[in-house]
């Protein structure tokens, strides 16, 4: 893709984005604006933002490949030894071997790049229009304009960051070369590729600005009500005593569903992730990441009078499935109380359930062709501690969040993506949320920062509390006294926490961590294994 193509992407996306603006996620905000009416009032801007968020859930982005698809095959998370009827996709077979130049896999990788920059172009178009529009063009004035502006900036930064994590080396292995561009204008016809550090600085600058722009709403009484709990963030079930409780039918629903949007807290969490990544260049940024992560964990949401207070990210809740053995009976497998940000997609309306069922079926039937995303539990020793203790029976991430399809042998799949056949309401409450950022990551960031400061007792206090919350009451990790020892324990927890959520590959890459290979040896991912090549006609 040559430089001028960024202009073509942007131009095409202008109409594409708005041709599919239906309602605002699950709430009745009708995006009825046509291209001619675009950017003439609140509805146009809202529809534009909605269109970008919806686009993030495409299969080429976070609706599959960057959620539980190729990205998790890159990390050796899935088994690569299945039979033809269990894994029929040449794409995923090649992804499991990290054969980035494979003729089947390469088009998928190219489409990830193309889709991401389409969404970036759309965000830039929205940003350019919001910047020049007066506050009185929006129903809620300055607050709404800033909110839309900030969320668009955050989307731009988020997508660039993931393209950087995918198509460039991590800071720990940075070679000073240029890799990806940072597109910050619309249209863009002179985009140049930049070094890793420059792109990362631009990501952080956009996120810092975005955080301040959305802050007036999210820290207002109504904003705090919309963020006060997982139920509030994702299901619009406001907490008793909070602003708008009992009167949601009279409220402007554009300002709810904050779990699906880049709220102040989601942006703060994303900033913590970015600063931790930057720690590979300068260790002082690990402390900055810790401060931001701690701000998320310590967040308080209160009503206007201060009579009601909620700590939306302080406590983890696994009660919906901790004691249920059948995936059909489980609730809240998305664990919304510890979910900062997720992307919404109506799988029923978009006819995506059959695709999910081919990878996460209840029952294996013969004859049948499947693409099982079978977790490589034994091959990666996921549920054994570094010291060799088997936690599989007690850790709910194994005992509850993995299931074996009927009639299958040795196949373990993520319950997070199990397609319920009886409780359709619960199916929608889970499958329609694609997790992007969890509070567990904030806890890991804080723990790692403590370990890097040689405060190992504090670091392990966090890890062991999290393990107890996940059923491991009598299996505490003994504090290590070296960073290397701690990181081994941290990665093992990450291997369990992020099953089929698209984060493990980035963790290995950021730490230059020793990955277990098929022959039982351990070695970091080589550059050709962890830096995805740019599309072949992409100039830099």
Q: Can you characterise this structure?
A:
By secondary structure, the protein is mainly α. It has a domain at 1-210 and 348-432 and 454-534: Serine Threonine Protein Phosphatase 5, Tetratricopeptide repeat (Alpha Horseshoe). It has 20 helices and 12 strands. The protein has helices spanning 5-19, 42-55, 70-73, 90-96, 106-131, 141-167, 196-218, 221-227, 230-235, 264-278, 284-297, 353-359, 377-380, 396-399, 424-431, 439-452, 456-469, 483-497, 504-511, 527-530; strands at residues 23-24, 27-30, 178-181, 193-195, 301-302, 309-310, 339-344, 402-403, 413-414, 433-438, 515-516, 522-523. Helix 1 (5-19) crosses helix 5, helix 2 (42-55) runs parallel beside helix 6 and helix 10 (264-278) packs antiparallel against helix 11 (284-297).
Q: SS-based structural class?
A: mainly alpha
Number of strands: 12
First-last Cα distance: 10 Å
Low-confidence stretches: 7-36
Q: In percent, how much strand structure appears in the residues? A: 5-15%
Helix content: 40-55%
Calculate the mean pLDDT score and round it: 91
Q: What is the CATH architecture descriptor of the domain at 1-210 and 348-432 and 454-534?
A: Alpha Horseshoe
Q: What do we call the CATH topology of the domain at 1-210 and 348-432 and 454-534?
A: Serine Threonine Protein Phosphatase 5, Tetratricopeptide repeat
Shape: globular
Question: Which CATH class of the domain at 1-210 and 348-432 and 454-534 applies here?
Answer: Mainly Alpha
Largest sheet: 2 strands, antiparallel
Continuous helix count: 20
Rg calc: 22 Å
Strand order of the largest sheet: 1-2
């Amino acid at each position: 893709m040559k430089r001028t193509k960024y202009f073509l992407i942007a131009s095409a996306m202008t109409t594409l984005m708005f041709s599919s603006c239906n309602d605002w996620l699950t709430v009745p905000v009708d995006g009825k604006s046509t291209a001619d009416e675009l950017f003439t009032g609140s509805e146009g801007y809202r529809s534009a933002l909605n269109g970008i968020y919806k686009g993030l859930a495409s299969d080429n982005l976070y609706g599959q490949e960057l959620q539980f698809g190729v990205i998790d095959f890159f990390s050796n998370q899935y088994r690569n030894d299945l039979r033809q009827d269990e894994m029929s996709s040449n794409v995923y077979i090649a992804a499991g071997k990290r054969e980035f130049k494979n003729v089947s896999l390469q088009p998928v990788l190219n489409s990830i790049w193309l889709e991401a920059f389409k969404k970036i172009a759309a965000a830039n178009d929205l940003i350019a229009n919001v910047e020049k529009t007066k506050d009185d063009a929006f129903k809620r004035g300055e607050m709404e304009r800033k909110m839309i502006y900030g969320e668009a900036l955050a989307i731009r930064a988020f997508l660039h960051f993931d393209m950087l994590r995918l198509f460039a080396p991590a800071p720990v292995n940075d070679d000073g070369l240029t890799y990806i561009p940072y597109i910050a204008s619309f249209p863009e016809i002179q985009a140049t590729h930049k070094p890793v550090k420059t792109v990362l600085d631009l990501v952080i600058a956009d996120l810092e600005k975005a955080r301040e722009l959305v802050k007036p709403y999210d820290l207002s009484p109504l904003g705090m009500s919309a963020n006060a709990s997982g139920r509030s963030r994702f299901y619009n079930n406001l907490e008793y005593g909070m602003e708008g409780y009992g009167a949601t039918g009279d409220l402007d629903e554009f300002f709810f569903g904050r779990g699906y949007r880049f709220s102040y807290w989601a942006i703060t969490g994303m900033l913590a992730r970015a600063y931790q990544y930057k720690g590979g260049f300068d260790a002082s940024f690990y402390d900055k990441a810790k401060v931001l992560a701690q701000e998320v964990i310590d967040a308080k949401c209160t009503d206007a009078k201060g009579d009601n207070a909620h700590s939306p990210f302080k406590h983890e809740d696994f009660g919906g499935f901790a004691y249920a053995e059948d995936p059909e009976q489980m609730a809240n497998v998305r664990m919304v109380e510890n979910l900062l940000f997720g992307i919404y997609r109506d799988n029923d309306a978009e006819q995506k359930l059959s695709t999910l069922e081919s990878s996460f079926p209840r029952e294996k039937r013969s004859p049948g062709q499947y693409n099982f995303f079978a977790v490589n539990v034994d091959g990666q020793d996921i549920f054994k501690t570094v010291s060799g203790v088997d936690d599989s029976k007690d850790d709910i991430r194994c005992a509850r969040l993995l299931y074996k399809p009927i009639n299958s042998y040795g196949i373990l799949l993520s319950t997070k993506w199990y397609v319920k056949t009886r409780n359709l309401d619960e199916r929608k409450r889970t499958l329609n949320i694609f997790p992007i950022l969890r509070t567990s990551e904030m806890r890991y960031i804080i723990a790692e920062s403590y370990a890097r400061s040689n405060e190992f007792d504090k670091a392990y206090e966090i890890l062991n509390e999290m393990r107890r919350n996940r059923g491991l009451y009598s299996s505490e990790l003994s504090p290590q006294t070296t960073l290397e020892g701690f990181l081994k324990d941290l990665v093992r927890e990450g291997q369990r926490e992020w099953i089929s959520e698209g984060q493990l590959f980035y963790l290995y890459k950021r730490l230059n961590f020793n990955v277990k290979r098929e022959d039982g040896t351990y070695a970091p991912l080589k550059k050709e294994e962890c830096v995805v090549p740019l599309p072949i006609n992409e100039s830099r």
